[in-house]
Structure formats: C-alpha cells, structure tokens
Amino acid sequence: VERRASTSREAKLEYLKRKRLQRMKSEKSNNSSFLNYTLSGSGGDNTFLRASAPCGVRLYNYPLLNPEVGSCSNDKDAFSKHKVAKFETLDFEWTNKIPECPIYSPTMEEFQEPLVYLEKIAPEASRYGICKIISPLVASVPAGVVLMKEKAGFKFTTRVQPLRLAEWGSDDKVTFFMSGRNYTFRDFEKMANKIFAHRYNSAGCLPATFIEKEFWHEIASGKTESVEYACDVDGSAFSSSPSDPLGKSRWNLKKLSRLPKSILRLLETSIPGVTEPMLYIGMLFSMFAWHVEDHYLY
Asked: What is the pLDDT of residues 114-124, one digit of tens each?
C-alpha cells in the first residue's frame, strides 16, 4: 500500500511539474507582463495556523478597493505592467540551494524556561537572524479550533496583497495597504481550501519545494494577481484550555513578556505586538518578509 501511494504521489508531482513547465513556456511565448506594485510589511512575527486542511490558495479576481474613496477601482494605471529582467527566468532550481535556518529541538527540561533557552542558543542563532524552535509539547487544541470555538465572534479583515511584482525599489521593498474583506476563520479557511483544490486538483498539501517554485513563478509571470492576507490582528491562537500543554507552558506568547527574566514585564502599558501577541493569517502565496523586529526584539 505504501509503495502504491508513493508511486501515485510521484506520478502526480511529475504531472504537476510538466503542467507548470508547459504553462511557463506558453506564458513566455505570449510575452506575458508583470504587475507593477509595491509591498511593505507592518512589523511583527508570523504566526502559522494549522486547521483541518492547511493549504490555502490563490484568489479569484475580486475587485480591489480604493482605500481613498472606499469604492471599487477600475483604474488600471495603478497596476501598469512592465517586464523585469530580474525575474525573467524559467529556472527556479536556485531555490534548492537556499540553506535552511538553524533548527532547534529543546528537551522537555530545556523547554521549561524560554528566556534561559533563548540565551543559550543566541550566540549561534543570532548569526543567522532567524531560527526555528520545535516544541516538545503538542497543542491538544489546534490553533484553528481556538479561533473558531474558543474565541466567540472572532473576525478579521484581510488586506489585498499584489503578487505579480514588476518594479522593485533599490532595497527590494514592496507595499500593500488595500482593504480586503471581513472573515471568520472558518469562512477564510473554506474559501482558501476551495480555490487551492481547484488549482491543484488536490485537498492535501504538496511538497514545500514544489510550492516554493510555484510561488516564484507567480511572482515572475503568473496569472494570480493578488491574494488575501490578514496581518496585525489582535489576539492569540494559544488555547486557554487548562488541559492544553502548550497553552499552559511559558512559551505561550500571552505569558512570555511577563516572565521574571523579561525586561518587558516592567512596561505598565499593554503594547500589541510587543507585550501582547498578534496574529498573521495567510493563504497560499501570501508573504511576509524576514525582517528586523521592532526595537530589535526577538
């Protein structure tokens, strides 16, 4: 059974790769153009939510809202299209050569004191600017369930994030600030998974290496003009259930800033994104750049 499943998966991946190459060649021959727009993040760390089907997707071509007048804009000048030599390539194999960031797997004992552990790994991790820490504890209440059931009435507003970027600044920065729509977490999940399934004929996740190449193809010359992304949403996806081991731990971001070794405990005022966690809820191809945190905090 495992061999048949593996063979079927490999055949499907091979089919998707051929389909992508055919699409890329077709678009190149049609002299496809790129979207001119810019995008900048607003600070804060990504929080990745795991729900029942964790793969999101590109959007249908919803009309974009003009934030200045609050109505739909058909002004195509805002999205003038140009070629960009930087991305004129069919070869995305360079993505396979990007080194992984340091990955740490603390023991249960090391996991007891977050700030002590962070101080321990800082000499190495700080040389990279980013690292991944794998918790030895597993949340008994998934983040998606927290946002759908524990947080009654939880809703958020997305931003429309342009994807086909044609003109980049000298520092490779881009901006997005157009309002999207208001969602419950369940509605956003259903929308994202539906369109993901439509695009890839699959309800499950595909390998990250394949999706990464798909992302850079969309940036360069794809058909997806925009995706939706929720950033700077007040709240936390850590469970408040007394039976949830991760929620009870000191790594719960609602508790971290108030730990005895945290200098942030001295702040008398609550500051979203500094003393209190924020949520970032994305879908396939939404992006948030690796960046220096506010006040150089972790």
From this structure: 999 999 999 99
Structural domain range at position 229: 137-297
Q: Model's pTM, two decimal places?
A: 0.67
Encoded tokens for 260: 């005895």
- pLDDT confidence bin for 85, thresholds 50/70/90: low
pLDDT digits 0-9 by tens, 134-143: 999 999 999 9
Pick from 136, 158, 193: which residue ends a domain?
A: 136
Is 288 found in the same domain as 276? yes
Residue 24 lies in a domain: no
Please tell me whether residues 102 and 187 are part of one structural domain. Answer: no
Query: In this structure, are 168 and 257 located in the same domain?
Result: yes
